[in-house]
Amino acid sequence: MKPVSSKTNKRPHSQRQKAASQNSNNHVNKCPTGIKGFDQITEGGLPKNRTTLICGSAGSGKTLMGIDFLIKGASQYN
Question: The domain containing residue 69 runs over which residues?
């Protein structure tokens, strides 16, 4: 069995910086979640028309975030 490399991105550092810079210049339409702190961290909410996976360990708040998102969405953004 081949060992797994700890380096996931094989591109040189300068190429990664250039790609990150280009990605930051692209505008992504966001959908606010209604969760003030989360919307601030994500600079406006979740990307529109894209699937978003929320993951974390047990007790990290995934279910609570989902419930809060549904409640705020239904009450504020009907």
Answer: 29-76
